[in-house]
Structure formats: structure tokens, C-alpha cells
Design goal:
single chain; alpha/beta; Rossmann fold; six-stranded mixed sheet; four-stranded antiparallel sheet; 9 helices; 10 strands; 33% helix; globular
Amino acid sequence: MGLDHSAALLKTPAADVRGATISLQNVSKRYATLRGDPVLALDKVSLDIGAGEFVSIVGPSGCGKSTLMTLIAGLVSKTSGRILVDGLDVQGPIRGAGVVFQKDVLMEWRNVLRNVLLPVEVRGLEKASHLAKAQDLLRSVGLSGFEERYPAELSGGMRQRVSICRALVQNPALLLMDEPFGALDALTREQMATDLQKMWMRERSTVVFITHSIEEAVLLSDRVVVMSSRPGQIADILEIDMPRPRGAEARKDPRFVASVDAIRRHFMALGILSES
């Protein structure tokens, strides 16, 4: 049975930080296979994430990054351990959390504005009070004037912007993002990262961001969690001590270069990357 975390997730702590807290305590996930030999995807993962924190998770394919996100969201069940969001045990899908996947999964028969407002309708929230929020979000990502367009009329980057606006329209205290820019070209991806950072600085949700890009993780995050190969475990956690906002110039900052290099060295030590 799922827990309705809406009241807890939407509370507003002091200092304009309104995000949810997350606590993973010795969380493991084992999947059954058709052959009958179970696969251990995650092994005894422990991690605490503070309210309003932006945390990225990087690691090799198959290390359990996406599994970790779906466990936090309550979309799949853990095998062992505890997952707490704002002190409440996650036993099922969390209402009030925003989730963004690599594929935008927009509804093709709904226009842009109606796609953004979908969570409001699903949760039975008052539509009129969220309409201005939806329009403001679309304006903030350069989609003002596209409210009546349909997904088939949009580029990949525009569709993903709609997807992010949809996740944010219900004012989530927790935003979970699984490789949301993975299918985009390099220039669009860089612009999307800039847009996301601006929105996060304004909204102050707690963000868990899954990515394969080391530079993207360092650019966006307060902390970067480095995962090992399967079964996924936390190999290291790096604090990113750089001022915000972080634009293109931040990539030249010695602290940025050092953080990217440190993560690469971890992957080299794990045998995931090689120098040649």
C-alpha cells in the first residue's frame, strides 16, 4: 500500500529550502530472472540527502542507478533495507514527487499545456490555481507561445522541456530525473542543463539526477555519488564546492576540472575507464 506523502513533501522549511529529505539505509535490490538465477542490482546502499540538495548519481551502465531512483520513487520495491522520505517509510509510489525519465512520455493527443497540467488532473487538484504556474514554467524554458502545439510538432529538446515542466507544475519537494538529457544533441543538452539549474535555484526542490556524464554531474550538483559496477555500491561521494549559477565558464574553474578528474580516476581504479 502506497503512502500519501503530499503533506510532508509540500511543507516549506526555513531559508526558502522546501525540498524533501531522503535516507537510504542498507538498501539492496535483487531481481528474479526467467532462468531462475537472481541478479543483485544494488547491494547495501546507504545515503542521506538533505532538503533542497541537488545530488547526481554517476556510474557504469547496469550499476543500478535507475533502479535506485525507482526505489526512491516507490515504483519498485526494495529487497532489503529502509527508504525514508521526510522520515516516512516508502512502501509504494510517492504522491507529490516529480519524475522525469529519459524518454519524455508525453501524451500525443494532448497539447503542450494539457500535458503539463496532467499531474494536476490526475491528483484532482484545482486546475485554475495551477494554470499560471504551468504557463510560467513554459515561459521559463522558452516555450511561451507553444501552449496549443502538440508533441509531434516539437523537437526532442522541446518535448523534454515540456516533460520537466510537467514534473514541476505540482510544486514537488522531490524531483527524480533519470538521464533526462541522454537522447539530446550536445548543444541542446547544454542548454537544458542551464535551464534546469535556473529552475532548481528558483524552486529549491530536492533533486536526484541520474546521468552518465561526469561533467554534467559536476556542473549541476552539490554532491556527486559515484557508483561501482554491479552489484551497485557507493564507491565515493564528492562535494562540489563551486558558486552558482554555473555557466559555461564554470568548466574552466580549477575546482570543476579537479572534480571531473577525481571521478574519472575512480572509474579508472574500478576498471571502468582506461587511459588509452
